[in-house]
Specification:
alpha+beta; five-stranded antiparallel sheet; 33% strand; 21% helix; elongated
């Protein structure tokens, strides 16, 4: 049952026709409105053993939510007066005004060290709460782990008819994996349209921070469809994570004790060995990577309506079975936007000097529009790209650790930042570090 909508209670009375029955609802609780009482002849199916009678429908409307028990209805026949009881119902908020909510829970909270919470605050590392309360409570949480530990958490939603998209921020210097996705991100087979008052699992992750410091639990951005059809982007609660240095490994016990003999048997099991990058088996050569980088450079320097270079670049990417980037921002167009912005701004100043205020207002609006487009285009133009020579993506800028993803030769990456001889790049929704000599920069 939902508030602000009609709810129908029905009962069948055998043997009596509608004209011999009177139904009254003499007393109703507050915040309940009687909409109508209908009586129609009840005709059972031919296969049914029931007799003809009267079908009674009592329609009411609830204005508040919660458990509601209606008073019994009065039934009058020629036999006398009778009482018809109602079932107790729970009224939920109207589906058209329900706002989707998000909840986060730490699945392996028992394995995470949590400092004592101050008075009045919920202890961290436990379930992140539900709905709006989850976001406020989670802001006070601080999870404490050591470098290399795993934090597994589940994102849940409720009051949503479908999950439309799932995006997440890939954290730096860590390993981040999606363990399970319970709802279809395209909305084709995820959360059903059936109403449920409970949180439903949406997606589950495993995050392994590798360096000490203060971080936030990797945010997950969900866009869901509310029951009224609108799309809602759900905010992710800020959950602070403090990562301590990993404890040093204790020495292997002397041989002689049982544990020593066992340790000696595996003394060489985890000895340090250099990690040599495994060659990536994919179409493309180093010469293809250099050619692709040159085409991207020419495209960024070409005129806005010169498509020959872009088409040549896309043909090469298709031949290499690579995902082509959309047309890159071009420097000549940026300079043209800057010139147009300056031109109309000069027209504004000149019009004001000539006291032509209507023309000044027009030029000012046009110059403002050009300034906004120039700013947006300049931000896109400032992004740094590179073409990979092939290699490994590492979670931290050190080559002697576990590897992340692999970069095929001639794949285009977005450079996010540089640290020494390493670049932190993004490739196909995966972030990681790559040596500077493993890429060809696109000026």
């Amino acid at each position: 049952m939902f508030s602000a909508s009609n709810t129908v209670f029905a009962v069948d009375i055998a043997y009596l026709p509608p004209e011999e029955i009177s139904v009254y609802l003499n007393s109703i609780p507050n915040n309940v409105e009687l909409v109508s009482i209908k009586k129609v002849t009840y005709i059972p199916p031919a296969s049914s053993s029931q007799s003809y009678g009267t079908h009674v429908e009592i329609t009411v409307r609830f204005s508040l939510t919660g458990d509601v028990k209606l008073f019994a209805a009065d039934l009058e026949t020629k036999e006398g007066f009778f009482k018809i009881p109602f079932q107790r119902v729970h009224v939920w908020a109207n589906m058209q005004i329900l706002k989707p909510e998000l909840s986060v829970s730490i699945d392996n909270a028992a394995a995470i060290s949590v400092p004592a919470a101050p008075a009045g605050k919920a202890p961290a590392g436990k379930k992140g709460g539900q709905g709006k309360a989850a976001a406020s409570a989670a802001k006070e949480e601080i999870l404490r782990v050591t470098a290399g530990s795993h934090i597994r958490y589940t994102v849940r939603v409720k009051y949503a008819s479908a999950v439309k998209s799932i995006r997440y921020d890939i954290p730096e210097n860590s390993i981040f994996r999606e363990l399970a996705r319970y709802m279809d991100p395209d909305g084709d087979g995820g959360a059903t349209g059936d109403f449920s008052p409970d949180f439903q699992d949406a997606v589950r992750y495993d995050w392994q921070p590798l360096t000490p410091g203060d971080f936030s639990l990797p945010a997950v951005r969900l866009v869901v469809q509310a029951y009224n059809g609108s799309l809602v982007s759900l905010p992710f609660p800020a959950i602070a994570v403090h990562v301590d240095e990993a404890e040093a490994v204790t020495a292997v016990p002397e041989a002689g004790s049982g544990t020593g003999r066992l340790s000696a048997a595996f003394a060489e099991a985890f000895t340090e060995t250099p990690v040599s990058p495994r060659p990536v088996e994919s179409r493309g050569t180093l010469e293809d990577a250099r050619r692709l980088a040159a085409l991207y450079e020419r495209e960024r320097s070409s005129l806005p309506f010169a498509h020959a270079v872009m088409e040549e670049r896309q043909e090469l990417e298709q031949a290499l079975d690579r995902d082509a980037l959309p047309p890159l921002p071009r420097r000549p167009l940026f300079f043209m936007l800057c010139f147009s912005c300056l031109l109309f701004f000069s027209g504004t100043v000149l019009s004001v000097w000539r006291k032509s205020f209507s023309r000044a207002a027009f030029c000012f609006v046009i110059s403002l529009v050009f300034a906004i487009f120039t700013l947006i285009y300049g931000i896109r133009l400032s992004r740094s790209y590179a073409v990979s020579k092939g290699g490994i993506l590492y979670p931290i800028p050190e080559s002697g650790i576990s590897r992340g993803g692999e970069l095929p030769v001639a794949s285009v990456v977005l450079i996010l930042k540089k640290a020494g001889d390493w670049y932190y790049v993004s490739f196909n929704d995966t972030n990681g570090w790559i040596p500077a000599d493993a890429v060809i920069l696109v000026p």
